[in-house]
Amino acid sequence: MNVLFLCTGNSCRSLISEAVFNHLAPAGWHAISAGSQPTGKLNDKALALLAGKGISTEGYYSKSWDALPLPPDVVVTVCASAAGETCPAYLGPVLRTHWGVEDPSHVVGTEQEIDVAFEQAYATLRARIEAFLALPLEELKSDRARFKVKLDRIGLIGA
Q1: How far apart are the C-alpha atoms of 44 and 54, rounded to whole Å?
Q2: Which of 7, 34, 88, 102, CA to CA, is 20 to 30 A from 66?
Q3: pLDDT for 118-129, tens place per residue?
Q4: Active-site residue, selected from the candidate residues 34, 47, 79, 95
């Protein structure tokens, strides 16, 4: 199964999601991230956070959803529409869900406040990914409606 974590800039939240998912996922499951308007550069704080957690980002880069190497089975948007951010809508025959997370790269404050925002985004995304991977995936792959309900509920974790 291939999972696409989608955001606008593909520099922070979608990158964290891709890296964490690939770090935790069983064989045969793979994540990629992309953006509808990629910045072209990964966020340095996100990279440092992942490195500090022992999660590899080797080979990752900010990319457009127009340049995906393979079609996804599941698309997870991670933008924060509640903050007035426009979430890209992936069109295609895929299972879609929304796991909104505030963008820590937009936090203004002290270095400590910014670090806390990155840790909170990481913790929320990791908890959601762990819940995703704890689902009876083989069973749900054949029941798309039930799979969608479960994925949507996961998007409420830490919200």
Answers
A1: 15
A2: 102
A3: 999 999 999 999
A4: 79
